[in-house]
Recover the amino acids of this structure.
């Protein structure tokens, strides 16, 4: 079955870049996603990448995909305190569902 | 107004009690999901539904049941709650087959004593 792994915690200083990593097992995944969960709230879609792409940039966010190593990363440039949250990567599981990773809690230190 | 709402937002109950968690959506989406979130385990899928007549088990359906009363409503029941069902529960919706994007409710924190 699917297995999506992430580090549980990451701390960075305000203004630095954050890199959140994810490894997945299903090589047939067509889309991979990053969701953000702010304290006390549900998950919100942050960005996604199609499996035939290596990189996608969206303002301060850069997603890198290494299909050979089944490795996905999310880079947040100029990290702000408002970026403190839990970040989940997710892969498409079969035709119908998403399989979520364990989540990485990002703490931004002022 | 929130598109996906969950009630209650917090609930404390005792072992053996029956609990129902409600989810409503105004997005008009056909597909609805129930997940539970546990620290260090991420989100795990409990049940999902593609329309009113369609119910499917997810990864961890034992101890849970669901009811899709209408397109807009999907409820999760714990017939006899146990302490290891203490978790944060999320409902989500999805527009249809053309997109995998899911839209999440704010969550229900359930504590079973």
């Amino acid at each position: 079955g699917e297995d999506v792994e992430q580090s549980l915690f990451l701390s960075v200083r305000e203004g630095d870049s954050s890199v959140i990593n994810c490894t997945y097992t299903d090589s047939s995944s067509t889309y991979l996603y990053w969701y953000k969960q702010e304290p006390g709230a549900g998950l919100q879609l942050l960005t996604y990448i199609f499996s035939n792409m290596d990189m996608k940039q969206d303002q301060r966010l850069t997603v890198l995909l290494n299909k050979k190593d089944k490795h996905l990363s999310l880079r947040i440039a100029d990290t702000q305190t408002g970026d403190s949250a839990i970040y989940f990567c997710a892969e498409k599981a079969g035709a119908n569902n998403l399989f979520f990773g364990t989540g990485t809690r990002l703490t931004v230190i002022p | 107004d929130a598109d996906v709402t969950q009630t209650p937002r917090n609930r404390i109950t005792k072992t053996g009690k029956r609990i129902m968690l409600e989810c409503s959506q105004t997005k008009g989406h056909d597909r609805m999901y129930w997940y539970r979130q546990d620290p260090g385990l991420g989100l795990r899928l409990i049940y999902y539904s593609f329309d009113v007549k369609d119910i499917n088990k997810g990864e961890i359906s034992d101890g849970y049941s669901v009811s899709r009363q209408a397109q807009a409503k999907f409820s999760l029941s714990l017939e006899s709650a146990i302490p290891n069902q203490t978790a944060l529960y999320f409902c989500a919706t999805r527009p249809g087959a053309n997109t995998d994007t899911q839209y999440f409710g704010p969550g229900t924190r359930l504590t079973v004593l």
About this structure: Chain B touches chain A through 24 residues (CB under 8 Å). The radius of gyration of chain B is 13 Å.
